């Protein structure tokens, strides 16, 4: 069994890449065995909520600000916290610290985090004719976020927030449209493979997907190598039983220098996509 060194692989997403794939076959292929690294970029990059951001709007002296601090793990679980502030002169001042949680979905071209928001805070009602009236405040709602191609540094999130104010023993609720910006981190992601073969065509091993925010997810690999065409087909499933991610590598060609070609279909961190793998330049 030959051991392959870890070699970055360029990923191309256009039909013309097929010619380059065939050229990559010129090297002496071999059954997979060793350490390999596939870097997936271009339109198949994965972008996730990660970092601090803020959106503020002002109209006729009224101010609304929403600040957010988000993080996403290697499985696509999103969590974080934030602060909603309302400053309406002669009407209300309010502060609502909140938390949010959800999962990443959609495709690499258009990732879609869906976030559930909940929080508790305080408010003060103003009336020129009366003393200020303090109130307690709760809020809940759902945000849908998008960052389609070409990806930008932020997810734009929209939804409705149900706000309930309690003062003098009475509670009143209303729904407020809400817009928020969530910091986006993304770029090429890496699939690392540790493979062995039994010499009879069975290929097994482990894999790790590493996102641009350095978070990782682990997988198990099983597949077949066909000597007739020097290609392998691998199925890659998560070790986390709660994860719905899955990857497949088909027409995989390797030699002593690393991966020389193939295709990858994936659902990583909840995001779907596909790419053609080309050999290093």
Strand order of the largest sheet: 1-18-17-16-15-14-13-12-2
Question: Class by helix and strand content?
Answer: mainly beta
Poorly predicted regions are 1-27
Instruction: Summarize the main sheet.
Output: 9 strands, antiparallel
Write down the domain tally: 2
Descriptive notes:
With 281 residues, the chain is mostly beta strands. The protein has two domains: 11-45 and 188-277, Lipocalin; 48-185, Porin (Beta Barrel), CATH 2.40.160. Helices cover 3% and strands 68% of the residues. The protein has one helix spanning 17-24; strands spanning 11-12, 34-40, 46-49, 51-59, 62-72, 77-88, 92-106, 111-127, 130-146, 154-167, 170-187, 189-197, 202-210, 216-226, 231-238, 246-255, 258-268, 271-277. It starts with 10 loop residues before the first strand and ends with a strand.
